[in-house]
Known about the structure:
Blueprint: E1 6-11, E2 15-19, E3 26-30, E4 39-42, E5 48-52, E6 56-61, E7 66-72, E8 75-80, E9 86-91, E10 106-110, E11 115-120, E12 131-132, E13 138-143, E14 146-151, E15 160-163, E16 167-172, E17 181-186, E18 194-200, E19 211-215, E20 220-225, E21 231-237, E22 251-257, E23 262-265, E24 273-278, E25 285-290, E26 295-301, E27 306-313, E28 317-320, E29 327-330, E30 339-344, E31 349-355, E32 361-364, E33 370-375, E34 385-390, E35 395-400, E36 407-412, H1 474-497, H2 519-543, H3 550-557, H4 559-570
Antiparallel strand pairs: 1-2, 1-36, 2-3, 4-5, 5-6, 6-7, 8-9, 9-10, 10-11, 12-13, 13-14, 14-15, 16-17, 17-18, 18-19, 20-21, 21-22, 22-23, 24-25, 25-26, 26-27, 28-29, 29-30, 30-31, 32-33, 33-34, 34-35
Helix pairs in contact: 1-2, 2-3, 2-4
Amino acid sequence: MGALPNFAGLTNKNIFLVEFREPYAERTLRDETTTNIRSLIFSPKGGYLAYRTDKRAEIVQCSDWSVAGSIEGNIKDMLFSPLDNYFMAWEMFLMNKDNPQGKPNLHVYNIAEKAVVASFTQKLQSGWEPKWSADEKIFAIQAGNRVLIYEDGNFERYTHTINAEKLNCFSVAPSTAPTYYFSIFTLGKSGQPSVWKVLQYPNFELEKAVVSRTCFQADKATFSWNRRGTNIFTLTQTDVDKTGGSYYGKQSLSYGDVKGNAGNMVFNKEGPIHAIAWNPGNWNEWLAVYGHAPAKATLFNAKCDPLFEFGTGAWNTIHYAPDGNHVLLGGFGNIGTGHVEVWDPRGYKRLGKCAAPDTTSLQWDPRGETFLTATTYPRLTQGNGYKIWHYTGVLMHQRTCVDKENLLSIGWQPGSYPKSELSRAAPRGLAPVAPAPVAAYRPPGARNKPSTFTLHEHEKPHRPGEAVNAVPSKQALKQKQKREARKVRNAEEKASGETPLPAEQGAPARPAFVSTGDPEKDKKIKNINKKLSDIEKLKQQRAAGKPLEINQKAKIETEAALLKELGQLRL
């Protein structure tokens, strides 16, 4: 593995490789002679690259880009094991005259031995993926209402099983020997709630679960373990929200740990849970984006105590850099703005921001210094291409597909690389090519006037406990208006009585106020001076190019009469 990271991309014409250095030249790994390439993936350690066609899946060794192995078949999905030792390929489950019961369609390939070492039947593409422990000593696969567990790479016979009625899904914690943990989710029936549990290997009796949580409204679940495999979040969701509160179904988030602590997470803003993510560099911190637009982002510790509020924004995704030093909040897909902010989650500082509209794929480089955004086919058929951004929001490189060229996928090669100067300072950037923003519609009566209406009240970043965006009471607003009016009145009286406002060029200057000795005349003089001060302000606004209303123009026309009356009062 070289000193610089690479990234590889797939178009409808070739597979290309780019070494991360200017001028970011693309090297072709596979050209048009390799037909019908559907997708590609890197292995977790970066040792291999795999791509699939409608006839086979091929494994390429990244050290010299030679073929390390292949599996024949119409492969639809593929996956590497955590340590790059195994490759798994899934093809469509088919029944025909020769195989009326169908045949195994999930194959486990040992890369070193260049052989398929196990095959299983997984009829559905959803949830076909087997689960591994981080050290690859445990291999588990769901078969109906059972989880079959194999040990130490021996696939001849499973050693343990988890049996649970109406088993929906399961997960394996990213822990290593000798302690492993499994999580399972079972659907409720006949008025009974759904349940998720945490079980400690090898004691898989459901009654002895480390954690057991019920949820009455849940059709599916997603598990999220921290880096050490000690804490877990379970996001449950219904297929349809019968209350009509959410288009995507009702959600709930609960948590647990291997010590048996558990509970339900309640956020301080109503609305959907858009994303949650553990910090890969700190197993004790996690971040959530939640709530109705504009969504709110909050950093929590493992006990679910808030550490920092990032405020609100057009966000629905979270992307941590591999070392956890940077975290990216983005708004893509149905948000549509492509708004990106990068933060330092340790110092609670915003490091940069940019706009990457039409992004369908985003990934940090292995060093956590830059990130890559891409617009891919078939999600979007126009504007395919990719961009490389510095974490401060500076655009470093962009490539747009030419006519009749589509970008299908792209990604960084994982691995360990030394930090570069990019970790300390931003480079010179390019000007991003983006369509000019379209101004919001305003009715004719509101044009050329300051806006007093906002669609959303945005919350600023702050630490928990700090007062922010407090909504004042009606009485407080009235008192504020009175204070502002008093300040304006005092300033005008001071200006009219001591130092007159500078007159518009060509207009006669008004003399400073001098008492006539008659209280009635003095009162009239002060009133006229106040009107003349208002006229001076309107004339200054007109000189600055601001359009005036009809009544304001009429007020200016009274200036001569007021000056004449003022002169008579001073006699």
